[in-house]
Amino acid sequence: MNRLSLEPLHVGALTAEVLDTDNSVSIVLRGDSDARDAAAALDEFLVRKLHPAILKATLKLVQLDVTGLEFLNSAGIKALVNWLLAIKQQQQPSRYFVVVQYDEGITWQAKGLKPLTFVAQSFLRLEPLR
Length: 130
Prior knowledge:
Transcription Regulator spoIIAA; 31% strand; 130 residues; globular; alpha/beta
C-alpha cells in the first residue's frame, strides 16, 4: 500500500496507480481511456480521491507518469484539467507542484499535454523522458 492508502484504479484498459517515491508519490497512468466509463472514473480518482489525500499528507511535489498511456481521449484530458483546477483553487501554502513525465515519441502526449501548462503554469512542469 502507498503512503496515501489509495487502491489502484482499473477501468477497461486504463489503470492509475499511486507509487511511493522518496519524499512524495508518483501517479502512473497506463493503457488507454477508450472504455466507456474510463474518463469519469479517472476524474473521480484524481479530483475526489487523490487530490484530498495529497493535501492531507501535505505533499509538495507529485509526479504524474503518462509514459505508458497509449491514448487519452478528450474526456480523459478534461479529467486532468479538472485535477489541475482543483490544485489551482488551493491557497499557495497548501498547493503542490506536479511534474508530468511523458514520452515525446507518442504523438498525443507530445501535442496533447502542452495546453495543460496554460491552466497550471505556476505549478506544472512537463518533462519528456525520451
